[in-house]
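Chain X:
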Amino acid sequence: MSIKQSELILNPDGSVYHLNLKPENIAKNILFVGDQDRVDKITQHFDSIEFTTQKREFKTTTGTYKNTQFSVISTGIGPDNIDIVMNELDALVNIDLTTRKPKENLTELNIVRIGTSGSLQADIPVDSFVISSHGLDLNGMLHSYQIESISNTAIENAFVKHTHWSTKKAAPIIIENSKKLQNKLSSTETFTGITATAGGFYGPQGRVLRLALQDDNLNHKIDSFQYNSHRITNLEMETSAIYGLSKLLGHNACSVNAIIANRANGTFSKNPGKVVTDLIVYSLQKLTE
């Protein structure tokens, strides 16, 4: 059965609605960034550029670096944007946009998020790199889908017990990364841990301006959580959504984070631009080795 026009919206030129992309515009290796200005910071290292487009905050440039084709896509901020980007990317490779029917032979994308984040652990300093072994979903977006097959109930239950998680909030979900991509990106330079994904920047991440928090001790509960060898290393707004939708749709995903702040000791990078540039160069080199 064909997917209805109201469910899979296409632009007049046949491109997917938000990303403004056609299937021939993207590579199988995808780099996600939050900030649209960071797209050019990655593609300036490319040997060639083949395509670029932008609609709203979603900018895409496809090109080649060391004989490997990449598409760099800015997702904007938050799990709601990831829901748009992941579903439309998958539609580009796994749905025939003419017949509006899913393809019989599915394509597997390799998706790496190159992001910035704040460390929750005192021993993970600013200007370091963290690879997210898991995404800890604290925002609830993934509960719109059938997630039973991808979550880790043992860690989830331990986290709920440790934090006395409010039943009024969406139940936390733990999703593992692609070990294939983690192995490519890991080195003695990187830290590894669980990345918590919040649904907002202020209250959901424990920041107080004029509004009181539902649980003003939650950040301490998060950074003190440990399950076997797993601990929560950093907090941001995209990773768990990328991991969850990638698992459900059959893609590989891994998130690497430039640590520009340390929430445990209150420090901030003196040159955040440099650590982001260093992570970009590092990631491109590791992915093409």
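Chain Y:
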Amino acid sequence: MKTVKTIFSLLTIAIFTISCSSDDDKPKFATENPLAVYYTQTGFTVSTNFINSGDYEFGLVFKPIVKGKIKAITLKLPATNPSVRVTIWDYTTKSVLRSETLNIATADVQISKEINELALEKDKKYMITMNSNDWYKKNKADNSNVTYPITAGNIRFEEYRWLSGTAQTFPTNISANYNAGDVSFDFQQTE
């Protein structure tokens, strides 16, 4: 009987140890926002404010170089806007994966909106866009093109796209000599 109690006690301890240590054994990865590194890598240092300048759907095509998740969307505009639509797209199917509305209550202040985590696959193309008539245009002093891809941490930016209008439509125009926006996301590697 003593042997059975000993075996039961050892099994209980082993199961408890395994169940408690599994979360602790997972690697912890820092959250990163790739936009500042993107601007540094592109040399887009000249910034011009556009306010009430026509509606556009515009943003960046990107590819995670590791498996991860988007935890929040960040946005900064040169004017207030209570309802900026931000969309995360599947680049291949051109379908909407997530659509969020952000309230820019104060001009020139970056806001962050936590979202339900969106899992991203390694090496799969996505795009994040916003629809607004206010934005920052950032470019090089000589207005020259950048060469994509641009790697910013665990995110590789493939191109910048835009389309005129207010519709939630996948942008088809590509430009390499500027970026309009300051829409980005907080990314965390998961494995």
